[in-house]
Write a structure and sequence with these properties.
Belongs to the peptidase M35 family. This protein is mainly alpha-helical and 232 residues long. It has ten helices and three strands; from the N terminus they run αααααβββααααα. The chain is globular, with a radius of gyration of 18 Å. The protein starts with 12 loop residues before the first helix and ends with a helix. The structure holds zinc ion (ZN). Zinc ion binds next to loops.
């Protein structure tokens, strides 16, 4: 049991304003969690430095979840312009209405997840993670009121892996594992495929797996601009 680091709790709403007066360093909290007034993210086991990185990552992930859903919302349930789906086909393979709707539904559901009120728990124990950089723990309940918990593993902090964009991608990845009203999250019964190159290949060769692979969801969210991605 890891004791809660009180400094790691982000207080919001009126209490945040009070907190800001007492602790000027908390001022950025209001900006970071402006979409989630009255929510409280907690960071048990995390150092102040880790909390600062995680707050930025959550902020990025919140932007990603909104932007990703906007992509599908604006294209509707049955997109007619399939040449306008390069981003979808890049990460989820050849277009089919069935696959499109599976991915769309998941992003729609994910867009409601209160990422800024989940628990982000830090661990330095290799045994807790089995080599992963993060791990999702499902806490059952409806998508709006249940609190997810993401275990942040040692690998998350390795040098060169820690851009805000990359960390935001990790949170979207983990969030896609969330098991809520759909009954199961991504990769419920499949091995996971990780990394940009492998995920691009998975989409090309096995769309039926890509549409259930968490990292593909993360990369879709991270890279709205496909031509830029491919040339870079
Ligand atoms: Zn995963």
């Amino acid at each position: 049991m890891v004791a809660m680091n009180l400094a790691a709790s982000v207080m919001l709403g009126l209490s945040a304003l009070t907190m800001c007066v007492a602790h000027p360093t908390a001022a950025t909290d209001i900006t970071i969690f402006h979409r989630s007034a009255e929510k409280t993210a907690t960071f048990p086991g995390c150092s102040d430095k880790q909390v600062a990185v995680l707050k930025k990552a959550i902020d990025v992930a919140v932007e990603y979840q909104a932007e990703s859903w906007e992509y599908f919302r604006t294209r509707g349930l049955s997109p007619v312009h399939t040449d306008d789906l390069e981003r979808f086909t890049t990460w989820f393979g050849k277009f089919s209405l069935q696959n499109y709707r599976i991915v769309r539904d998941r992003f729609k559901e994910m867009s409601a997840y209160p990422l800024a009120s989940w628990t982000y728990k830090c661990t330095n124990e290799p045994d807790d993670c089995g080599g992963r950089i993060a791990q999702f723990f499902n806490i059952a309940g409806s998508r709006r009121d249940s609190k997810g918990e993401i275990l942040i593993c040692k690998g998350f902090w390795f040098p060169n892996s820690g851009s805000d964009a990359r960390n935001g991608q990790t949170i979207i990845h983990e969030a896609s594992h969330f098991n809520s009203v759909r009954g199961e999250g991504t990769n419920a019964n499949l091995p996971e495929t990780y990394g940009k190159g492998e995920c691009l290949k998975l989409a090309e060769k096995h769309p039926e797996q890509a549409i259930h692979n968490a990292d593909n969801y993360g990369f879709f969210a991270q890279y709205p601009d496909v031509p830029h991605l491919l040339s870079g």
